[in-house]
Automatic annotation (TrEMBL):
It comes from Pseudomonas extremorientalis. This is Inactive transglutaminase fused to 7 transmembrane helices. Residues 25-184 form the Inactive transglutaminase fused to 7 transmembrane helices domain. Keywords: Membrane, Transmembrane, Transmembrane helix. The chain crosses the membrane at residues 6-28, 314-334, 354-373, 385-407, 413-432, 444-461, 467-487.
């Protein structure tokens, strides 16, 4: 007996831990929203390219566009132009769009539009980068100044991250004579980044420039320069002004390197203007779109990967264990008497179509008339199978009659009575009549009311939209329910109704 108890406890523990682990993985790692009403940001970015074309020259415009390889995913990308050819190429980790035309004249306007969102999959894309670089050639006073700056940087750093941070801070100290010499009167951010790159190259630390766009709606945007270095596992991003490490979450990497955002051949006065706005979309719908537009498959093996019609069926099926759990609690803990476990659940499913109030009325009418017929047939001394067949046929005729009269009276709700499970109604009538004969009318009425109450409560709980979404999205929660049901299988204590029933004994003991 002890070994059996231990086996049951281990089984319950495994089921509960497995259910919690899978659900937690979906929520915290994959980032699947817990509620159906959850929304996520959707960003719309427009880059407007304006220039003046030379009337006699072919026109070729090249502009960097986001690589979208890690933290963001593109849902839609479009290149809007008139009479221009468009091509997109990847060069050294960057993406560059090329607009070309044989002839163009006067002011020209091109658009690049991008709709993106945060990458939904919790799995990070593996990245590669250089961990060593050759020194940039430098001679004369500049070399001496660079080496003088490197000495305290080496002394006050412990790894690549702190080395780069210290180098940036030293370069931004405009009171240092060595810094003044290297800057040569140009304290702009791009020139400071160039000096930092020089210092790091002497120490053979690779660093590259990255240009980002800040995701802020309704504000003018210009590319913001950052620095990054690969530490062997991941890219480390640094603010070239402060040395602060870590790229903010609202920054979108647009391109890397020293090249300009746009180059124009056959034109002049090129200018790029960015405009951004954001909207919200249902999180699960957005997750599906993310799945379709990337190699992610975190929803592929969930119930959302099924065809839509099949999904609707499973939304009902996954709630059946919830209804069974309600009946289990009502019977084993409270002591409510019902006609079995599954009959109230099936009746609760029928209430989905008829709605609760109308369904209770129909159930009461059909069951009462069926019991009357069953009582009449009992006087004919028929065997059980013919008797059940007659009752079933009577139920079908009764359902058809109710549907017909409801339609004539304009009560379209009555048509849904046809969805009541006829076999269940027939067996309910049969079992109630047997209970009537064996235990009396009062007990049969009590069981009928208990069944109707249990079915109504199960229907109300099974119809909660938030619960349907949660169980359908995280079906591993059913493993936890199974563990609870197994634990209930060993419950031998008093039910609540029995405490009331034996209340007199308690008073007697006192």
């Amino acid at each position: 007996m002890r070994s059996l108890t231990l086996h049951l406890k281990i089984l319950i523990t495994i089921l509960v831990v497995l259910g919690i682990s899978v659900t937690a993985y979906q929520i915290f790692v994959l980032g699947i929203p817990v509620t159906e009403d959850a929304t996520d940001d959707l960003w719309n970015i427009d880059a407007k390219v304006e220039f003046v074309a030379n009337p006699k020259d072919p026109v070729k415009i090249q502009m960097f566009v986001p690589p979208l390889s890690r933290d963001f995913v593109s849902l839609n990308e479009s290149f809007i132009s008139n009479n221009y050819g468009v091509s997109v190429n990847r060069i050294d980790g960057n993406r560059k769009v090329t607009w070309s035309a044989r002839r163009a004249k006067g002011n020209q306007t091109l658009y690049y539009r991008l709709v993106l969102t945060k990458r939904y999959s919790g799995e990070k894309v593996k990245v590669k980068g250089p961990t060593f670089r050759d020194s940039i050639a430098v001679e004369g006073p500049e070399k001496i100044a660079a080496e003088a700056l490197l000495a305290p940087i080496r002394q006050h750093s412990a790894d690549v991250e702190t080395f780069i941070t210290e180098a940036i801070k030293r370069t931004n100290n405009l009171n240092d004579d060595n810094v003044k010499l290297l800057l040569a009167g140009d304290p702009s951010t791009p020139h400071k980044a160039k000096i930092v790159e020089l210092l790091l190259s002497i120490a053979h630390v690779p660093v590259e420039k990255v240009h980002t766009i800040r995701l802020v709606a309704d504000q003018p945007q210009t590319p913001e320069l950052w620095l990054r270095s690969f530490n062997g596992n991941d890219w480390l991003y640094f603010n070239p002004e402060t040395g602060e490490q870590g790229l903010p979450a609202d920054r979108l990497l647009w391109w890397t390197g020293d090249e300009n955002l746009i180059t124009v051949e056959g034109g002049k006065k090129a200018m790029v203007t960015f405009s951004l706005n954001n909207s919200e979309m249902n999180a699960i719908r957005l997750a599906k779109l993310t799945d379709e537009n990337t190699d992610a498959n975190f929803l592929e093996y969930s119930l959302y990967g099924l065809p839509l019609q099949t999904q609707q069926t499973f939304m009902i099926m996954v709630m059946i264990p919830i209804g069974v759990l309600v009946i289990l609690i009502l019977r084993n803990l409270i002591g409510l008497q019902t006609l079995g476990t599954f009959t109230p659940v099936l009746i609760a499913l029928a209430f989905r179509e008829t709605q609760l109030g109308f369904g209770i009325v129909l159930f009461t009418i059909i069951t009462a008339l069926g019991l009357s017929l069953r009582s009449y047939l009992e006087h004919l001394k028929l065997q059980m199978l013919p008797r059940l067949s007659v009752v079933l046929t009577f139920v079908v005729v009764l359902i058809a009659a109710i549907s017909l009269f409801s339609h004539k009276l304009g009560l379209e709700r009555g048509l849904s009575v046809a969805l009541f499970p006829m076999v269940i109604l027939t067996m309910t009538i049969e079992r109630l009549s047997i209970t009537w004969e064996e235990r009396g009318a009062n007990h049969a009425l009590k069981v009928a009311i208990g069944t109707l109450f249990a079915a109504s409560l199960a229907h109300l709980i099974m119809s909660v939209p938030e619960l349907i979404y949660f169980v359908f999205t995280f079906p591993a929660i059913l493993l936890i329910l199974v563990g609870f049901m197994l634990a209930m299988g060993r419950y031998r204590g008093y039910r609540l109704t029995e405490l009331v029933r034996f209340k007199a004994f308690l008073k007697a003991d006192r």
